Amino acid sequence: MTLPLEGIRVLDLSRLLPGPFCSWVLADFGAEVVRIEEPLDAKGRRAELSQGVTRRAVFTTDEPAKVRPYDCLSRNKKSIILNLKNKKAQAIVHQIAQEMDIFLEEFRPGVVKRLGVDYEIIKRINPRIIYCSISLYGQDGPYHHLPGHDPCALSVTGAIGLSTAEGEKPKPFGVPVADVLTGFHAIVGILLALRARDITGKGQYIDISMTDSALDLLCLASQPYFRKGVISKINRKNPSSGIWETKDGKFICTTNMEAHHWANFCRVIGREDFISHQYDVAKREEMYHEVQKIFLTKDRDEWLRILQGDPETQSAPVHRNLDEVFSDPQVLHRQMMLELNHPDLGVVKQLGTSIKLSETPVKIRSLAPLPGEHTVEILTQLGYSKEEINELRRDGVVE
After folding, report:
1. CA–CA separation, 357 vs 347, rounded Å?
2. What is the pLDDT of residues 276-325, one digit of tens each?
3. Over the stretch 199-241, which tens digit does the pLDDT of each residue have?
4. Are 13 and 104 in contact (CB under 8 A)?
5. What is the pLDDT of residues 157-183, one digit of tens each?
6. What was the pLDDT predicted at 166?
7. CATH fit for domain 9-216+335-394, picks 3.40.190.10, 3.40.50.10540, 3.20.20.10, 3.40.630.30
8. 74-120, pLDDT tens digit by residue?
9. Is 9 helix (H, G, I), strand (E, B) or coil?
10. Mind giving me the DSSP string for 68-92?
11. Local confidence band at 46 (pLDDT 50, 70, 90 cut-offs)
12. Superfamily name and number for 241-325
């Protein structure tokens, strides 16, 4: 079976979540991804996304072998370790880039130029290359030089503020919404540029900003604001859409905002008198408190059986830990938790892929490589001899 991105080659210099997320999806659908990783620092540390963090983590000698097999972000990829501050390593990047379709990086603006691997240089080496830069604020503008992570993007775009009810203190989200959203934007940009290259024969530069990506979350809220200056604020006490505590201390979500769903919901909970008051602002808080009292009369799972027994009533469990998430029958049915075989660890579990294609589905060709697992292979393909590779190791160019 031919995968949709088979034959597309990606050189990935990214290290934080948006870039590796982007190249993960590209790799899952057939792209050959070469991941350039940084060498260990003086304290024996390397940024390791598979630890579940985007900060440096200290490793024992055998820890990567135990951690990497669970790293979905690095599967189907190859790994080479290069010290990009070394001119010889930069020359190796130039050699690899000659044969690549995609160049992916997420350094702060200006860093790639200092490293000698910016778009202008890479474009001269390979005019057909598609060069994608990911950064917090984009490559220009008054903030472009500032560092930051996911919560900064969600803060400056109003995503956190608009998710905070009156009187509440703004809090960061518990999951990296902007990081993942940015990764998907990068994927779309790359696929669009590939299609454009099919037509024009030319590569191009892609500038992906985390804040631009997060601003797409305002595609609805921005409309009444632009039209009438209306600023949307979250209303926690909305009886038609809310999070409700149940008798057993668990929580359930309902989203019965459409009139027919609201009517069915009211019938199911035994309050048909609420049906005609869905849009009655004066009664909203009173109804909210009454609905909460009703939910406190039964356990969560009992409510789910009742509500989901009516296909026109909207509800879902609020899972508060990963045990609940990855035992949910819908999650398992959709293969969003994979069980893969590892020669030393046996069965390892990873996150599945959210994009389901009927004719060319994802194929897991390899688990995540160890750091630098393909260094010798890639350098040999570039024409380096064993002696030259050993010399590069001694000089701290590669690991």
Report:
1. 25
2. 999 999 999 999 999 999 999 999 999 999 999 999 999 999 999 999 99
3. 999 999 999 999 999 999 999 999 999 999 988 777 789 999 9
4. yes
5. 999 999 998 889 999 999 999 999 999
6. 84
7. 3.40.50.10540
8. 999 999 999 999 999 999 999 999 999 999 999 999 999 999 999 99
9. strand
10. GGG-GGGTTEEEEEB-TTSHHHHHH
11. low
12. formyl-coa transferase, domain 3 (3.30.1540.10)
3-state SS assignment for residue 255: strand
Residue 294 in tokens: 């009703």
On the CB side of 178, CA atoms within 13 Å amount to 29
* Model confidence at 54: pLDDT above 50: no
184: which 2 tokens?
């998907």
The phi and psi torsions of 93 (rounded to 5 degrees) equal: -60, -45
> Rounded to 5 degrees, what angle do the CA atoms 290, 295, 296 make?
95
Sign of CA dihedral 350, 355, 361, 363: negative
Residue 176 CB partners (closer than 8 Å, separation 6+): 17, 150
Query: What's the one-letter identity of residue 132?
Result: C
The upper half-sphere exposure of residue 188, i.e. CA atoms within 13 Å in the direction of its Cβ, equals 8
What average pLDDT does the segment 134-153 reach?
Answer: 97
- Residue from 22, 18, 11, 24 nearest 75 by CA: 24
Task: Write the DSSP assignment of 124-147 as a string of letters.
Answer: HH-TT-EEEEEESS-SSSTTTT--
Q: Which residues of 83-95 are buried (b: 16+ CB within 10 A; e: fewer)?
A: bbebeebbebbbb
> Rounded distance, CA 293 to CA 231, Å?
31
Phi-psi label, residue 321: left if phi above 0, alpha if psi -120 to 50, beta otherwise: beta
Closest by Cα among 54, 63, 52, 56 to 41: 56
Q: How far is CA 354 from CA 203, 336, 362, in A?
A: 28, 7, 10
Mean pLDDT on 252-266: 97
85 near 115, Cβ under 8 Å? yes
Q: What residue spans define the domains of the chain? A: 9-216+335-394, 241-325
